Amino acid sequence: MTSRAKPPLPKQQQSMPGRTDKMDPAPDHGEKTYKGSGKLAGKKAVITGGDSGIGRAVAIAFAREGADLVIAYLDEHDDANETRRLVEEAGRKAVLVPGDVQGAEHCREIIDTAVTELGGIDILVNNAAHQASFKGIEDMSDEEWELTFRVNIEAMFRLTRAAVPHMKQGSAIINTASINADKPNPTLLAYATTKGAIQNFTAGLAQLLAEKGIRANCVAPGPIWTPLIPSTMPPDSVAKFGSNVPMKRPGQPAELATAYVMLADPLSSYTSGATIAVTGGQPIL
Q: What pLDDT, in 10s, does the model give residues 131-151?
């Protein structure tokens, strides 16, 4: 099966948060295809959820564009070490910071590590996320709802608040939203709600930081083939994943990397408060 495979995909299930090496087909992060051109030369970036999926694709692209990285992740050490290998293969520095972004202290630790190990922070990519599927609202516990908000939106606020004092004019914040912000999947109620909050947070943040010369934007992916999918969706849903967008297939992480590079590029100096949709042809408002 090729990396641009269309449904039906093999039925599969993993435990959360999922592992790349167990996915069939293997996702494409741009390992063999992304070619850099120095757009981010000398930049220092933090990527949360940088071990796999979209985060790994962004890490590869940023490194090949010349950036050094702090890669924050939960506990997927094998995936994180592979991402570090790919970054170092590009000749850039990669510092791994494992831990749970639910904790305020850990969010500060991530930013402090960037300042200490990289010498500063020019780009913050808030990408870490939690999702889980439920058929009915009565099936969702208070704990699940609160967990989703702590990981997806509260951590984003804390990481951003900690990073901004270290950011200079021309720095960039890029938040991962979702097509669910505009077209919510009812079985992903908590996740979709946080993604709407992220889009609103980004729009307000862009205005708040404009006078400091710091830009804030978000990327809204459609169905993307990452470990989140087989670890949070039932096998029947995995098999047809991506079939509901015009391109009739899931996107690969590599297909989002250019959006993040564009938003991080200093030449995009008038782009702030924007949402870049990468949705396989599905329009969003």
A: 999 999 999 999 999 999 999
**Contact (CB, 8 A) for 279 and 245:** yes
Query: Residue ranges of the domains in the chain?
Result: 36-221+252-276
pLDDT of residue 3: 52
pTM, two decimal places: 0.97
Domain covering 36-221+252-276: architecture: 3-Layer(aba) Sandwich (3.40)
In angstroms, rounded to a whole number, what is the distance separating the alpha carbons of residues 144 and 22? 25
The CA distance from 72 to 75, in Å, is: 10
Alpha-helix runs per DSSP H in 1-74: 53-64
Residues designated as active site: 191
Residue 9 per-residue DSSP state: P
Q: How far is CA 219 from CA 63, 169, 216, in A?
A: 19, 21, 11
The residues, any chain, with a CB within 8 Å of residue 231's CB and separated by 6 or more, are 13, 14, 15, 16, 17, 18
Cα maximum dimension of the chain: 51
Nearest Cα neighbor of 161 from 199, 120, 124 is 124
Confidence class for position 4, pLDDT limits 50, 70, 90: confident
pLDDT band at residue 285 under the 50/70/90 scheme: confident
